[in-house]
Amino acid sequence: MQTDHLRRAQLPLWRLTLAHALRESGADLSLLEPAFEAFYAARNQVECYSDSLDALQRIAARMPVAAITNGNADLQRIGLTAHFAFHLGAREHGAAKPDPGIFLAACTRLGCMPAEVLHVGDHVEMDVAGAVRAGLRACWLNRVGGRWEREDLRPDLEFVTLTELADWVEAQAREDGCGEGL
């Protein structure tokens, strides 16, 4: 997991924007670090869905879970690090979802072939289409009850909550007759 210092170094555009705002307002540039820290702390004030933590814990007990993101939230600050084997950000990787490269890099770090990996996400294009195009299985986490409208591809799975996904993972393990993994 990256340290706060390294994570902040990955956010130069926001730092430049804050510096510009301070200069334009006539404020002292010594406020840059405290302003950035306030911004970054607010950026990492995440409220998880009520089912997320329990479901992540149940899934992570059965298989490695990785976070692939185009964002810059800090899993350590949010308190979610323990649920993930690793975090792969678009900035770290050099390409963002739906680029196949970020999905394939995650597969490599997991030591799995793409067809052995299930990518779970809520965005039709960034998550589902990106994963499918990269050769991964895809699960659409459809919390808003939307209707699938793409005809060119479909997710392998669709759930409304992470609890449903955790239930499915556990059912698959029971069907396979194994206590861990799928």
From TrEMBL:
Keywords (A to Z) from UniProt: Hydrolase
Protein name: Predicted hydrolase
GO MF annotation terms: hydrolase activity
Species this protein is from: Aromatoleum aromaticum (strain DSM 19018 / LMG 30748 / EbN1) (Azoarcus sp. (strain EbN1))
Database matches in InterPro entries: HAD-like_sf, HAD-SF_hydro_IA, HAD_sf, S-2-haloacid_dehalogenase
Domain of life of the native organism: Bacteria
Any single Pfam family the record assigns to this protein: Hydrolase
Keyword check for Hydrolase: yes
Coiled coil: none
